[in-house]
Every structure is written in structure tokens, then in C-alpha cells.
Specification:
This protein has seven helices and eleven strands. The protein is α/β, with parallel strands linked by helices. The protein has a nine-stranded mixed beta sheet with strand order 3-2-1-4-8-5-9-7-6. Strands 10-11 form a two-stranded antiparallel sheet.
Amino acid sequence: MKVYVATSDKYIHLMEIYQFLFNKFWGNGYEVVVLGYQEPQFKLDDNFTFHSLGVSRNNPSEWGTDLKRYFEGIDDKFFIFMLEDMFPANPVNFDLLNDILNYLDDNIGRFNITNTHDRCRYLDTVEDGKLNGYTLLKCTPTSNYRISTIPSIWNRQYFLRYLKSEMSPWEFEVDGSNEAKEDGFRILGIKDTYALDSTLSVRRGNLSTDLDFSVCDNPSDSVSEKVLNEMREKNII
């Protein structure tokens, strides 16, 4: 299953950090497709490829238009999608991730692979059975953020159902979630144990302050100082 990472000219430099942490904690056996505009100015590793969405209009609404066109043209039934500042922070739980991949079916719209189904105060969830000993959490039909850019496995047809042209990432989450209420699809995550610890490193679009390397919805956990020093030594940060 491919991993797709959306970025923009303003944030493309963050992909160098993302790439380093992805291959450290996820490994180079997964294919990552970077979806942006201008080519990155650093060398991509062998498992990373860059696809230009065209010439940027520097307008947040181009996000929906260009991503929709791209995802309408691929064949993947399911894929992993996230944004460029959602850095892997710790080794991936591959046992759980593989269990999730084997569990997917057409009635699952999105499967959150991070902790936010369990910890995010903006989501309403209920337990929804077991997955190989893990407790499943399901968004309620009227929950906010049924649609989210948080790292997730997506059903492509479900993704395209709510991704509209001239839609910003925030509109995708807010407007898409309002539209997705009571749509009959399961929006799932796991309780207590997570496939991926992920950061949300840029807050409110502000690149002028230090990046946040703590795990989203678990600020006591973070990319270790040892790993941060590795990136400093390589002039990545």
C-alpha cells in the first residue's frame, strides 16, 4: 500500500525531515509519493518519488482541485494519506498496521492509524468490536472530524466523495465532516495502542517558530533528542 504525502511550495522543505524520520521509523520498504508543486531541493531516497501537481496558484483552494484530479487518475483501492508536517516520531507498530490492512473492507471509509480516535477531544467515538485483540473505536454518525487529514488509510472512493474542487484542507475537514455525518460508513481507529506515533509540527500555518516534534495528542512523548541530534548533524534541522 502506497503512502501519499501532500505538500506545497511553502512547506516542501519539511519533506526532508519527513523523509528522514519516515525511513528511520517506517523503513524504506514502503513507497512514498510526494504530491506538491515545485521540485524539492534535496535528494529523495529510492522509496520516495515526487509528483508535481502543476504550477501553484498560491491559493489554499488549489489543494482540493489538484489532489482531486490526481486521485481520480490512480487505481489504488486503499491508500495511506497525510500532510508533510505529520512526522513519524517512533517505530511503526507493523503487527498492528498489518492487522488493519487485512481488516479493510468497502464499508470502511477511513481508518485512523494514529492515537486521535482515542485521545482527540473533538471526536465522538464508541467501541466497535475487536481486531485481533485490539479494541476498535468507531466515530459516531454525527461526530465532528469524520473527515480528517490526520494519517489514515483511506478508501479512495470515499476520499473522493468528500474532496471537492476549490477546497482547502480545512474545508475538507470541516465541510467534508458535516457532509459525512450519518453517511453509513465506518470511520475507525484503535484504543490504547496505535500503529503510528505522529507529530503535528506546524501550528496554525506558522513556520516562524520552532517545529513541534511532540506526538499529536500525547505531548509527553516526542521524537527523541538523539534522533533530533542526528538531524542536526546532517543539517536537516
